[in-house]
Amino acid sequence: MIRDYIRTHTNPPVFIISGIVAIAFVLWGVLAPANVDTVASNVNSFITTNFGWLYILSATLFLVFVVVIMLSRFGNIRLGPPDSKPEYGRLPWFAMLFTAGMGIGLVYFAVSEPVSHYLNPPTGPGSTEADVAEAMNLTFFHWGLHPWAIYIVLGLSLGYFAFRRGMPLRPAAAFYPLIGDRIYGWVGHLIDILAVFGTLFGLATSLGIGGQQVGAGLETLFGIPNTATLQVILILAITAIAVVSVMLGIDKGIRNLSLINLWLAFALMVFVFVVASSRDIVNALANNIGTYLQNLPLTSFETYPGNAEAREWQADWTLFYWGWWISWSPFVGMFLARISFGRTIRQFIAGALFAPVGASMVWLTVFGDAALQRLRANPNNPLADASSETAMFVLFNQLPVVEAVSILASVLAIIVVVLFFATSSDSGSLVVDILTNGGDPRPRWQQRLFWAVLEGVIAAVLLAAGAVSGADALSALQTASIVAGLPFCIVLLLMCVGLSRALNQERRTLPRTEEPSPLVGLRESTTRRTRTGPTGEPGGGSTTDISEEDTRRNDSGRDQE
């Protein structure tokens, strides 16, 4: 009976291998957590030392690739039949892609990252006026165009091959132009398995970060020590909330939770904007965007050659983020594809690239510059010593409001993190099950339940492994992201090649919309004047012959096109 179920509702090689290896990792983490952390740290060190350049170049290549496609004539292609319409309205679509794509991380790092870059920049002494702009530039760099370009590469590939070419909604389908029917063999299964593990460990990073921040909020409000044990309990408890969303399905579950969470996060941001120095924040936003765009080419290719300290900083920040986004890309990209049926390629890229990046820039400026203002005014401000998970709550305590309002803001932040956690887990279980069932976009809830529980357990194991080894719990999550991201970085690069080949095959079938050339009317007018002469008299000669020949050649050329 079980065998028949697996054959009917899953892609057996992908489902069985992914499930067994994931469960084996959990058992390894439970039985020998210190060994897990040691092995992962060694692999992480090898990757950052020898392949950091690959992350840097690839992320920038993905950004250039999606922008070129968006501006090309291929932007008019729909992710579906030519007459298809979007399945979701713009606001629900944006809410789902934003909460799935960034969510927990923006709440976790919005205050702590700008403060960290200001105090400890990759180069220079830190805590100077120049470091204020550089801190926000680096923060925008990590949360701006590059991560969303990574998501779009996979989401666009899957949406195009699944909805336009009628292939299964699985990463291997994007390789059809490269390997043909072998996507249904072991090569395709291997690609999908890599996507499963990228998703699982990318999700584990986000879920672990969410557990840390919720624990910090509870410690701030109620004095409960924010230990690794508490964080593990929180991860498992919030995973149970995600299970409820799994049972409700995508329309009643993810969609509604995403909309609620978007409005709550917006309310929290508006609160900080109003009670902080709003005029200074608006000025800072314009300056931050200008600095980011001005420095984007240089920042995109920076590898700090010959500067060991700066390269260590880059491994802790930029390479961690790029590995996180790449390992997270199967989840976000597939989810983006799943909710973007009927949109044109241009709509898809523009919406997924600029809308969430713009929202992220506003969010980071409101929280980041509010913290930097206070730190510049008082170098001994408690924000300087706050950890990543406590920094936002420390900021709330310093806002010019009564204590009750500050507590309410902290409660709201905890709720936002919990809902981000739940939507990420639910969306992730949907994606992992699509990956393991052969590309069916409407999987069975029992399988989604299995993956949702397993995601939470993996996050708990990683946190516990870091705690047992005595390392920072975040470092264990960072290591998992970087390690899982490397093989899938190669997969994404090959996806760009496959998608380019597939789009070029459509070149001759795409409709060409041409504006009427003013030369046609000009030539016709010239022909008439030459035939009749400048005063209406019949004219002639070679001018008439040349004009008619040009007109015939022009008409012939258009007919051929």
Automatic annotation (TrEMBL):
<keyword id="KW-0472">Membrane</keyword>
<comment type="similarity">
    <text>Belongs to the BCCT transporter (TC 2.A.15) family.</text>
</comment>
<protein>
    <submittedName>
        <fullName>Choline/glycine/proline betaine transport protein</fullName>
    </submittedName>
</protein>
<keyword id="KW-1003">Cell membrane</keyword>
<dbReference type="Pfam" id="PF02028">
    <property type="entry name" value="BCCT"/>
</dbReference>
<dbReference type="GO" id="GO:0022857">
    <property type="term" value="F:transmembrane transporter activity"/>
</dbReference>
<feature type="transmembrane region" description="Helical">
    <location>
        <begin position="91"/>
        <end position="111"/>
    </location>
</feature>
<dbReference type="InterPro" id="IPR018093">
    <property type="entry name" value="BCCT_CS"/>
</dbReference>
<feature type="compositionally biased region" description="Basic and acidic residues">
    <location>
        <begin position="549"/>
        <end position="561"/>
    </location>
</feature>
<feature type="transmembrane region" description="Helical">
    <location>
        <begin position="229"/>
        <end position="250"/>
    </location>
</feature>
<keyword id="KW-1133">Transmembrane helix</keyword>
<feature type="transmembrane region" description="Helical">
    <location>
        <begin position="480"/>
        <end position="503"/>
    </location>
</feature>
<keyword id="KW-0812">Transmembrane</keyword>
<feature type="transmembrane region" description="Helical">
    <location>
        <begin position="12"/>
        <end position="31"/>
    </location>
</feature>
<dbReference type="GO" id="GO:0005886">
    <property type="term" value="C:plasma membrane"/>
</dbReference>
<feature type="transmembrane region" description="Helical">
    <location>
        <begin position="183"/>
        <end position="209"/>
    </location>
</feature>
<feature type="transmembrane region" description="Helical">
    <location>
        <begin position="51"/>
        <end position="71"/>
    </location>
</feature>
<feature type="transmembrane region" description="Helical">
    <location>
        <begin position="401"/>
        <end position="422"/>
    </location>
</feature>
<dbReference type="InterPro" id="IPR000060">
    <property type="entry name" value="BCCT_transptr"/>
</dbReference>
<feature type="transmembrane region" description="Helical">
    <location>
        <begin position="145"/>
        <end position="163"/>
    </location>
</feature>
<feature type="transmembrane region" description="Helical">
    <location>
        <begin position="322"/>
        <end position="341"/>
    </location>
</feature>
<keyword id="KW-0813">Transport</keyword>
<feature type="transmembrane region" description="Helical">
    <location>
        <begin position="257"/>
        <end position="276"/>
    </location>
</feature>
<feature type="region of interest" description="Disordered">
    <location>
        <begin position="509"/>
        <end position="561"/>
    </location>
</feature>
<feature type="transmembrane region" description="Helical">
    <location>
        <begin position="348"/>
        <end position="366"/>
    </location>
</feature>
<feature type="transmembrane region" description="Helical">
    <location>
        <begin position="449"/>
        <end position="468"/>
    </location>
</feature>
